[in-house]
Specification:
CATH topology of the largest domain: Spore Coat Polysaccharide Biosynthesis Protein SpsA, Chain A
Structural class: alpha/beta
Number of strands: 24
Helix content: 25-40%
Number of domains: 2
Radius of gyration: 27 Å
Number of helices: 13
Distance between the termini: 44 Å
CATH architecture of the largest domain: Alpha-Beta Complex
């Protein structure tokens, strides 16, 4: 929520009216085009003319960012055609300038246009045709013109993978309520504003793709003119920064109650590690209570209350599933089925873009969160998942992680070394992953072997996903409160 904006907007109902007297309320769509610019006088005529020449009538607003060229003189010539001109006595940047224009707009749909770009006459029409009441925004491709020309085709949303890199340009058509609820334009790293807004807006629903093509002018004064420098040098640094800034983290665990006396120490380690991440987005904690013990539940509540300043929300959800068995084989099958079901429930309950599973018998080091998220967001194509390392409490000479061979046999690491390595499988003891770039569901068995984690990892590998294991995140595996295996 931003101010009084809600997405989606609830329909008002008059419950005092009789059913037969109700009439459908038809809302007339109104589109506002906000042109935001600073010192774009040589190109401003083209931008304004393209906005007024749309096949669908639009409100057109020019928001000026303290230009010292002839931009305002040019804009004022269009006042008689209905152009709303907003002046600024000081330079405040592109995001504030766009937001100022949005505040004056009367439309229930908003489209932003840079002062040196052009939209074809059917641009708004094509975007509007793809819009539905549940669509936060509609986006399309862009065609560069000017000092060089090329076509950037935008993919369909299901193929786009927005967390890898941006394909939503400035001139998407926004449902106004979604724009307000997402938090409007904001400036975090002095660039990539389109990507930042699109990532936040996409949480509100599924965006739509249209065939509209923005005319994206290239000239010596445009920041994107040096395209080689922009992509190769700047984006290599900026992509990970923006992923970290925009991503929301959910921490989840299944609390069995087996180590109830260890829970305060576990909770403290998790909270300190999360706090060190210094996330700019809210972090949530979701705990499934499988203890079936009122005293354990009371302990969980009292301990988690200590960290209300670390997590935006803390939810303890009853998960009383239990099972019986008569031999070891049945026990292992039941445990695998229980873990798969619990992980599936956590996957649904946790709303973050990044999910971090921490088992209740794993003691994470202070730097775990920072190291994991740094690796998970790094590179042109970041990994799908990253894991801390910890020893197997049933086979203490082995770590929980390693490779599958050609015969689907699992080969666990006995030593980790110091270098981050790509693995075929890991456990769910300390596992951080992208929610939308990993298997949606967990199953209980891998090759008829009861192992929910192996099965999930094998499907990720089949999809050509990548899992990294970090020796720098060396966790303790708790045998008892007094005996922690490292």
């Amino acid at each position: 929520m931003v101010g009084n904006a809600l997405w989606p907007k609830p329909e008002k109902q008059n419950y005092h009216q009789k059913e037969t007297s109700r009439k459908p309320r038809v809302r007339e769509d109104k589109i506002s085009i906000v042109i935001a610019a600073r010192n774009n006088a040589p190109f401003l005529n083209d931008a304004i003319e393209s906005a007024f020449n749309q096949s669908i009538p639009c409100e057109v607003i020019y928001s000026d960012d303290c230009s010292f060229d002839d931009s305002l003189t040019i804009a004022n010539r269009y006042r008689d055609q209905g152009l709303i001109v907003i002046e600024s006595p000081y330079h405040c940047g592109v995001c504030a300038t766009r937001n100022r224009g949005a505040s004056r707009a009367k439309g229930n749909y908003l489209l932003f246009l840079d002062g040196d770009d052009i939209i074809p006459s059917d641009y708004v029409k094509k975007h509007l045709e793809a819009m539905t009441p549940a669509t936060p925004f509609v986006y399309g491709g862009a065609e560069a013109f000017g000092s060089f020309s090329t076509l950037w085709e935008a993919p369909d949303w299901t193929d786009g993978k927005l967390w890898l890199r941006n394909f939503v340009n400035t001139s998407a058509l926004w449902n106004r309520l979604a724009f307000e609820t997402a938090g409007r334009w904001r400036n975090k790293i002095n660039t990539m504003w389109d990507w930042d807004l699109a990532l936040r807006g996409a949480r509100l629903g599924t965006p739509a793709h249209s065939k509209a093509i923005l005319k994206y002018r290239q000239h010596t004064d445009s920041w994107s003119a040096n395209i080689q420098t922009k992509y190769e040098k700047r984006q290599e640094v900026l992509l990970p920064q923006m992923r970290q800034i925009c991503s929301r983290i959910s921490v989840g665990s299944i609390i069995s109650g087996r180590l109830a006396e260890f829970f305060p120490q576990w909770m403290s380690a998790v909270a300190q590690s999360v706090k060190l991440i210094n996330s700019q987005e809210p972090v949530e904690l979701v705990l499934l209570d499988n203890s079936n013990n009122p005293e354990t539940l009371s302990l969980m509540r009292s301990e988690t209350n200590r960290y209300l300043d670390t997590f935006e929300s803390i939810r303890i959800i009853p998960h009383p599933d239990s099972f019986t068995f008569s031999n070891e084989r049945e026990r292992r099958n039941q445990v695998a089925q229980f873990m798969a079901y619990a992980c599936n429930r956590l996957h649904v309950e946790m709303k973050g873009d990044i999910q971090w599973l921490i088992e209740d018998d794993i003691l994470v080091p202070l730097e775990a969160g920072v190291n994991l998220i740094t690796q998970l967001t790094a590179g042109w194509i970041p990994p799908n998942a990253v894991s801390g390392c910890y020893r197997n409490r049933h086979v203490e000479t082995q770590f929980v992680g390693g490779h599958f061979d050609d015969y689907h046999t699992v080969n666990a690491y006995s030593e980790m070394g110091t270098e981050t390595s790509i693995v075929d499988y890991c456990g769910t003891g300390c596992l951080m992953f992208w929610k939308e770039r990993t298997p949606r569901y967990w199953d209980s068995h891998y090759q008829e072997i009861p192992a929910h984690d192996w099965e999930w990892c094998s499907r990720l590998k089949q999809a050509e996903g990548k899992i990294l294991m970090l020796p720098s995140v060396h966790c303790g595996h708790v045998i008892s409160a007094e005996n922690i295996l490292y």
